[in-house]
């Protein structure tokens, strides 16, 4: 009898706490109402960065000025996800020209590092940390490309708030403190140089916890050099020389010459129409078109008769993901080195052919035949109608473990995402951009801006984008609910790094997905698992053209904030 009482109590508590909040309006899983503003909106994964962006807007700056300022602040305040040692991608809706622009600010592999080197070292994959996976950091050049084309305030003004916080310090937020308490000791255990000097010695010899003050005077000095000397201060001056010398000392190949030769690329965003909405992504070397492929496949099903979070919903979603990711493995790569068949991959006929392979049970697939890692996401909108969807990352959280002396940041390890198998689209080559996981997104309707959004989280990102679009369009959620709704992902299958499909993989679900769904998926032959912290971090700004109001959202899985005025 006592056992039955305990079981009943546990069931009662599970039911109560799985409901999330007892909200008066909207979905019970939403963490708050949508944020509203008429003149501007900023949504980032850190409240102080959001406030910096908002201050720039209120002081007469535009969305691009605010985005750069907030991104610089995030490189300081959220070093576990981004920084100037990493890459950047952006989609901009320009309020003046009324059109979209895409920026690929990802860096290339070292010119003197060859595929033969890895073969002679008997390496089957590029290591995850150390000097070998370091590619050229593209973020700073991305800032200046954005600023030259759209910016209004001086770079010195834009970087000033981040410099001030780096010198005076700021309190660490809950999630970032948790990540830093795990990342920094990991890099120390590897024996990587400059970790203690960069992240601990400047803070009184102790790594701060949540609510304690964190400073980075080295990064402040680096930002000052960039503010005074422009992008060349980073790519052609003492900073580049320091990076090149340090990486050579650590057995790597990235040189000052590689940094000096770097340039970003303006690209045309690509789109598909999903039930009346145009969903926009950037073409490869990123994985954005995987979300478009998934949506093209899923558009063939009537979700008005399929409940959100049901077994049928997750089954169809997962099978569409598997199909798209097989193509991702075979075709996605730097388009300067490989002719990616983007048009064919996004065509109606190809989507129909791929959709026809989906059955009632979990399947395994191969790529179609066609002739031919942690992150931050943020978005800003201003009073003139300009909106920017920006994503920036070092990969694997803080990056490679390579912190050049006295610069205040860590270099990315994106080079790990090359394949070492000869003859593949994403096979390593000198001066090539690796396959990239970070992707910004945008939606338009009837030729007008509708939504600037993104979801960070490595391989999850195309799945997250697809879930957000479906939550809004198919299930009628508002933009806060769309981000707070329980998520799932699928792991397994082929990858652009050379892995091949061996089974149907695993669906991993958040706790908000009901057991009836999990049971139904098991009946369809799916493996089910769980994971921690892989479901991304969503920010979004929606433009209500009828009322001329911005709607902002920042989900609860991060420390972030959406704010407008």
Please tell me how large the radius of gyration is: 23 Å
The CA-CA distance between the termini, in Å, is: 58 Å
Stretches where pLDDT is under 50 for at least 5 consecutive residues are 1-18
CATH topology term of the largest domain? Glutamine Phosphoribosylpyrophosphate, subunit 1, domain 1
Tell the overall outline: globular
Protein name: Glutathione hydrolase proenzyme
Family: Belongs to the gamma-glutamyltransferase family.
GO molecular function: glutathione hydrolase activity; leukotriene C4 gamma-glutamyl transferase activity
EC number: 2.3.2.2, 3.4.19.13
Q: In words, what does this structure look like?
A:
- InterPro entries: GGT-like_enzyme, GGT_peptidase, GGT_ssub_C, Ntn_hydrolases_N.
- With 565 residues, the chain is α+β, with helices and mostly antiparallel strands.
- It folds into two domains: 223 residues, no CATH class; 237 residues, Glutamine Phosphoribosylpyrophosphate, subunit 1, domain 1, CATH 3.60.20.40.
- The protein is built from 19 helices and 19 strands.
- A hairpin with a 2-residue loop joins strand 8 and strand 9.
- Helix 13 crosses helix 16 and helix 13 crosses helix 17.
- It is globular.
- 55% of the residues are buried.
- The N terminus is likely disordered.
Briefly summarize what is shown:
It contains 19 helices and 19 strands. It is about 35% helix and about 15% strand. Strand 17 (about 540-545) and strand 18 (about 550-555) form a beta hairpin.
